[in-house]
Structures are given as C-alpha cells and as structure tokens.
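re: the backbone from monday

yeah here it is again, tokenized this time
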C-alpha cells in the first residue's frame, strides 16, 4: 500500500515542473527542470494511507502527465508530500526522458549537458580517468553527496590521485547505477550537512529509481566522435511487474561500450603520433538493478533494492621508445618498436538496500540498512620490469599491480510527524533519526614482480609496506523542525551531531526560510554550516606513477616519509554557507529563479607540502618504494612526492539563474524556451604551512583550488514539438567560461621548475547541441542528433608546456571536454 511515508518514493515519470520545464515527450529535450514555478500558498496533502502500492492507477504516458508543479520532492525536506513549487531551497529535477534526450550513454555526461552548476573533468589520465566524477558549484567532487532514494550511496575505492581540482576525491561513481533504472534525479543546490551528514557542502544529488509495476522499455544508443574514433554503443532495458496488486518489482540493466579516443600531439622524441596518452579510455560496463516494494499490512511496507556493475577499462600510459630495451634483447623482440604500458581496471561494484516503513500512532517511520562495496583491481599490461630482467633474466609483460576495496554499511532509523496544537496556528513537522555507519578501506599488495627491483614500468605495483586495511565507525543523530511563522512565511530548522572514531565529533546546523509575497513572487534564504570528513583513502592512500623521465608519488600523511617532512594528522573540512534567492513570474508564463550563494570552506584537503629531487627520493625510499635506476640524480620536479593535508581556506561565491517560457503556435505546434546560468568564483583566503613552516601549496595547486573550474556556464535554447507530437526539434547552446591554470615548463629556461609556471587561459567556448526526433508509432521513436556539433576543443597548450609534446589539451581542468563533436542515433520503444 502507499502509506504517507512512501511518498518519499513517489515518482512521476516524465514529469517536469509547471512552466519551468515542460512535459517531456520523446523529443530529446535538454533543459533541466527547476522549481521556477508559480508561487502557491496551498498546503500539500499526503496521499491516504489506505491506497495500495500495487493497485494504484498506472502512470500516465508522458503526453498525459499533469503539470509538474505537483511533483513531489524528497530532497532537502523532511516533510512528506512536499510539492516542488513549495520548496524552501533550490531543487533541479532531471527526468529520465531528459537524460536519454541528451544522446549520451552515461549518466555523468548527460547531467553535464543539463545542469550549469554541475561540471566534469575535461579529460583524465591514469586511474583518475577510469572513475566518472561530478562536481557542483566549483568544489571538489568529495563536497557533493549522492543519495539513492534518499539513502547515502557508497563511494568508489578508486581515488583520483593525479594533479587537478579533483585530486584526492573518492566520490560516488554515478555511472555504476544503470541509467535505465533512473526515474528522475533531484539536485539540491544548497548546503545540507545538517540534514544528511558529511559531504553535503556544495549540494546533494538524489537519484530516484523507477518503481512502475508494469511496462517494458528498450533503448539503443549508437554514436561516434567528430574525429571518427570513440565509437560508443549503449543498450538499456527495464520493465516492471505487479506483485498481486500489493507491490511491485522493477528490473533494469545497461550495457555500454566506449572505444578509445586519441587527442595527443606529436611526441617530440619521434615527431610521430605513436604516443596515445591523451584521450578517452576504452571502457565496457555492464550494470543491473532491481527495486521492489510490498505492502505487508495496510500500514507497513517492505522495500528493497540492489545494484551491481562490472567495468573493464584501459588507459594508455606514455610511450616507451624501442631504445629503452636495447640492453634486453629478449624483450626488444617482443616490443621491436617500443611499447605503451596499459593501465587496466576490472571493477566490481554493488549495493544492497532493505528496509521497512509505515505509520504508527501518527508517526511515519523508516528503518533501513544499506551495504555497499566497490572493488578495483588494476593491472599493468604491455609493460616490463627491466630491473627484474637484469637480476633474473626474465620479466612478465603483465602484472597484477594494485587493488583497492571500499566498504560502507549504513543502518538508519527515521521518524516524522506533523503536529497541530492549540497554541500555534500552523502545523509543525517534526523529524528526527539516528544512524550508524561502518566504513572500511583496503589497499592490496601487487604481485611481487610489480613492485620489486624497478617495478612494473608505467604503473608500479603496491608494495607490502603501503598495503593494509583501515576502518572507522560513524554514529549520528539529527532533528528537523519546520512550520510557518505566518500564513505565507515558512521556516525550517535542522541540527545534526556525528562522531567519527578517527577524527572526532562534528556539529552542524541549518536554518532555511521562504516568504511568499504573492502567487507570483517569493523570496527564500538559507544559512548553514557543514563538513567533509577526510576519507579513509585520503588518510592512508599511497602510490607511485612513473613516466620515461619522471616519477611522482603520493604517500600517506602518517607515513615515515611524510612525517619526516612536516605532515600532520588530517582534520575534517568545515564550511559556512549563506544563500538567498527569488522566485518570480514577471509576466504570465515566464518563470524565473535567481539564487546567490557564498561558501566559506576551511581546512580544505588536497595534496600539499610537495617535495622534490633528493628530498622526495629519500621520502619515497623510507616508505618502501622502488624507484627507477638513476632517479636519485633526477633534477627538480622530475621526481616529486606529496601527501594529503589541510592546505587552505577558500571562499566560493556564485549565482544560479533559471528562466522558462512556453509558446503555443496552434496547429504549428508548441515550443518551450529555457535559460540556465551558473556564475562561480573561488578565492584563496588562507594557506596553511607544514610543521616545518613550509607553505603547503605552490601556484599550480592554488590554481587547482581557485581557477580550474569555469567562471561561468550558460545553457539556453528551446524544444519545438509538432501539434500531433510526431516531430520534435531541440537546439541548445552551452557556453563554458574561462579556466586558468599554472603550467609546468618542460623545455626552456624554467624546465621542471617548481617555482616558475606559465599562466594559461583556457578561453570561453561555445558549443551547440541539436536533435531531431520522429515518433514512428505511439511506442517507437528515433532520434538523430549531436552534442558539440561544430566540434569545438579546449585551448591548445603551448609546446614548451607539454610533457614529451603529447598533452596538447590541459587535462586538469573541468571545462570543455577534449573529444570534440559527438553524433548519435537513438532508438527506443515503450510497451
């Protein structure tokens, strides 16, 4: 049965917010829905508890779904049945139809085309390219919390270890959730640590799974880049079953394959393009999910869900010339023209959720348990260990190099009740709960051949000194009270306490308010504090990356090598956030929201205290790393290492704007126009120092914190649909603002300098996305379209600032992707 509590899981397939973002057809529409809707004073009413889950009316087809202002939102509120139009904080709603309408086979890349406040890395390399991360409001991916049906999702075990704004992050890999199973996504653009705990500093992404008890959907997506590479194929299937009119089971699965793309410049050692370091890795991913609910009694429902995904991915390392094997004839014969080591990932990710919810004596209750795990096994392929060959006369060409495991088990109890009293004229909603979370992180040892002697070339294995398993317990409790101070004045107060067995206690609070002056004008505001606890990976991870003439490493903050050079124990990041906005309808049907925000973030965690040359050599040796022969004599930043530290305080300020307007052309169809803008700027307020007094950041890392995310991102355009919904045409422009980086010199007077860098502007870029959809029958549709159809690329890096001349686009930003145009054919059927 559908109790009031189960409204947390109500989904309106294809629904968008009234006036904000139109009802989606099979039309490839792009704009994300927001709550820029007519302001209403009417209170939300919960669905009667006697209504059955399995017997509820079938969801209407997209063309019949009612206005989205009635859509129920569950993110950012503890009230049940809260309508989007009444939300006290800015929430974007992205439907499944909008996601598939982008033509992208991955959730991450789809969201990046829909939400201006969300960014993804320009590219990637090494292991960092093999996890799909997202960022909100120009902050590290660790500062965005991801939920699935309101429950905290476990994170990846694959830390982003390479330089850049995402360095040190172990976020949720959202592409391990089948896109076919996603009904819609609610993105809360507001600090919400007091409501949800650690990581909800920039915002919250809540992925709502499908719960339909009938139907079958099939979709095929095929695409290729403007350069003729990077072929992608996606197959998506899902369907629902009715359980005796008392429940549902919904099952779905994805298969996605992506080929390599190559965007490298000419290798200055050979003047050829044999070095294929720069580009999209090859990836094959299979994922499945099941979601179920069943009414045990009229007041108790059991629910469960499970996801599983397997990924195999391969990323190229820098090319090794044939001359490197001149002394090893046996392997010179295997690689007569040289070789490019391959970093290969086999990843298994799963999560199980089970719980009961219902009503008792007027209280809504929810008891749940969520267990999730991500396991990553990295192999080094097409490589050698020449030190081992020298000592023993042989070396493998494939190595089991590194493995990581991340486990999270969360148990929660949530309660909520709406009270009406004689001393207060308005209803008071009281919510509270408690949770216990167990977190574990493990680093496995590589095969002996991967870490002994000179280690596996390109991607060394983990030695026993840096392997281990670590865990911690997290206990939390929260209280949330919301009511009206006046008829049109809402207020919400939330507080939370958490205890971590490794980093101590945290206390967070939040106050939000909204006042409706009229049905066409309202204001809202929030003041809160939040935190991000250092992850176990940030506390304990260590690894070494080796290139032909350089090596760099990350060592654990509590290791001998780090402590000898001034490292300190990591503290949680803490934030103070303020936000204010307006919701206005200046003329009929034109709906506008504007929100400004400021986030002060203290004790930010990034690698700091970088040491170079002989000092780095000593630290790495103290931590058990085997280094290439002769590396003790390398100069400057050819050999470097650092550790994670609380490096700085920053202030992020920005503005979000959305506007929508519909136009009816009568027998010539209907068009929906939309604009969404994010302006964002981060400044350094304070830089920390190590225990030795040395500054923890250089100019390059300050740029990662402050200017690696675009200063602005603008999405605007429209979607036209014919009168009988046979045709739909969508055209949208995206403008990516400027990013600024500090580039290392690899030639010239400042070669490998650690104090002189080139300031490089990645200038703003305009891209065009367009699609044409034909609804062949009421059940079948086909879309042909393209993203970045005129094939714009990031700004080209000067020759002297490319390692070996290869990375002609700078990978360590989050602006425009480097693949160029992407063109696709999408065919779908619904039964």
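seq for it, each position gets an aa:
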């Amino acid at each position: 049965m559908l109790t009031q509590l189960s409204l947390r899981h109500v989904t309106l397939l294809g629904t968008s917010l009234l006036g904000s973002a139109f009802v989606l057809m099979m039309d490839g529409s792009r704009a994300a829905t927001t709550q820029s809707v007519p302001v209403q004073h009417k209170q939300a009413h919960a669905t009667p508890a006697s209504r059955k889950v399995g017997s509820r009316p079938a969801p209407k087809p997209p063309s019949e779904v009612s206005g989205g202002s009635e859509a129920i939102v569950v993110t950012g509120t503890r009230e049940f049945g809260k309508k989007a139009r009444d939300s006290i904080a800015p929430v974007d709603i992205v439907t499944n139809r909008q996601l598939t309408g982008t033509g992208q086979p991955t959730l991450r890349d789809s969201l990046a085309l829909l939400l201006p406040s969300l960014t993804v890395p320009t590219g990637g390399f090494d292991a960092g390219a093999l996890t799909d991360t997202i960022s909100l409001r120009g902050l590290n991916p660790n500062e965005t919390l991801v939920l699935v049906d309101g429950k905290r999702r476990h994170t990846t075990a694959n830390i982003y270890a390479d330089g850049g704004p995402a360095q040190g992050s172990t976020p949720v890999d959202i592409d391990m959730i089948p896109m076919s199973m996603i009904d819609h996504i609610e993105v809360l653009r507001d600090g919400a640590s007091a409501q949800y705990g650690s990581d909800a500093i920039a915002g919250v992404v809540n992925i709502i799974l499908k719960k339909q008890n009938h139907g079958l959907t099939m979709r095929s997506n095929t695409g290729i880049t403007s350069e003729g590479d990077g072929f992608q194929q996606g197959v998506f299937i899902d369907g629902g079953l009715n359980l005796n009119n008392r429940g549902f089971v919904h099952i779905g699965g994805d298969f996605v394959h992506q080929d390599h793309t190559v965007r490298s410049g000419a290798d200055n050692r050979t003047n050829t393009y044999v070095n294929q370091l720069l580009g999209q890795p090859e990836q094959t991913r299979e994922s499945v999910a099941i979601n179920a609910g069943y009414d045990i009694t009229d007041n108790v429902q059991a629910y469960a869900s499970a996801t599983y995904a397997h990924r195999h991915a391969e990323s190229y390392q820098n090319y090794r010339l044939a001359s490197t094997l001149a002394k090893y004839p046996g392997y010179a014969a295997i690689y007569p023209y040289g070789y490019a080591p391959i970093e290969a990932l086999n990843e298994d990710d799963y999560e199980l959720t089970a719980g009961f919810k219902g009503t008792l004596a007027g209280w809504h209750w929810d008891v749940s348990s969520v267990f999730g795990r991500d396991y990553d096994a990295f192999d080094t392929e097409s490589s050698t260990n020449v030190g081992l060959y020298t000592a023993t006369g042989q070396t493998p060409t494939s190595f089991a190099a590194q493995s990581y495991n991340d486990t999270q088990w969360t148990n929660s109890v949530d309660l909520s009740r709406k009270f009406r009293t004689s001393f207060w004229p308005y209803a008071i909603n009281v919510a509270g709960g408690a949770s216990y979370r167990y977190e574990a992180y493990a680093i496995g040892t590589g095969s002996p051949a991967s870490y002994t002697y000179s280690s596996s070339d390109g991607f060394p294995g983990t030695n026993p000194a840096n392997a281990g398993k670590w865990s911690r317990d997290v206990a939390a409790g929260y209280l949330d009270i919301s009511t009206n101070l006046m008829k049109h004045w809402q207020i919400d107060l939330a507080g939370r306490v958490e205890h971590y067995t490794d980093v101590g206690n945290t206390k967070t609070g939040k106050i939000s308010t909204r006042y409706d002056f009229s049905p066409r004008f309202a204001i809202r505001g929030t003041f809160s504090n939040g935190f991000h606890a250092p992850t176990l990976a940030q506390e304990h991870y260590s690894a070494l990356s080796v290139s032909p003439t350089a090596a760099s490493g990350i060592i654990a903050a509590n290791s001998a090598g780090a402590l000898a050079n001034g490292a300190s124990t990591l503290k949680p990041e803490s934030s103070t956030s303020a936000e204010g906005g307006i919701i206005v309808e200046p003329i009929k049907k034109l709906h506008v929201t504007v929100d400004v925000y400021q986030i002060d973030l203290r004790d930010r965690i990034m690698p700091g205290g970088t040491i170079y040359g002989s000092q780095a050599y000593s630290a790495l040796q103290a931590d058990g790393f085997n280094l290439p022969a002769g590396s003790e004599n390398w100069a400057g930043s050819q050999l470097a290492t650092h550790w994670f530290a609380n490096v700085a305080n920053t202030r992020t300020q920005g503005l979000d704007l959305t506007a929508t307007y519909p136009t009816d052309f009568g027998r010539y169809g209907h068009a929906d126009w939309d604009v969404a803008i994010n302006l964002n700027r981060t400044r350094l307020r304070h830089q920390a120092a190590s225990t030795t007094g040395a500054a923890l950041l250089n100019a390059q890392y300050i740029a990662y914190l402050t200017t690696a995310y675009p200063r602005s991102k603008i999405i605007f355009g429209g979607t036209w649909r014919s009168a009988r919904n046979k045709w739909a045409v969508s055209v949208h422009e995206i403008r990516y603002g400027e990013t600024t980086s500090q580039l290392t010199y690899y030639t010239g007077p400042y070669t490998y300098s650690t104090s002189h860098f080139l300031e490089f502007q990645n200038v703003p870029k305009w891209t065009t996305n367009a699609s044409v959809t034909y609804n062949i029958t009421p059940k079948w549709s086909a879309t042909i379209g393209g993203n970045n159809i005129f094939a714009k690329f990031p700004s080209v890096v000067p020759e002297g600032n490319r390692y070996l001349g290869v990375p002609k686009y700078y990978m360590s930003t989050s602006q425009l992707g480097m693949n160029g145009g992407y063109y696709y054919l999408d065919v779908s059927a619904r039964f």
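The first helix runs from residue 96 to 101. Residues 630 and 693 are 31 Å apart (CA to CA).
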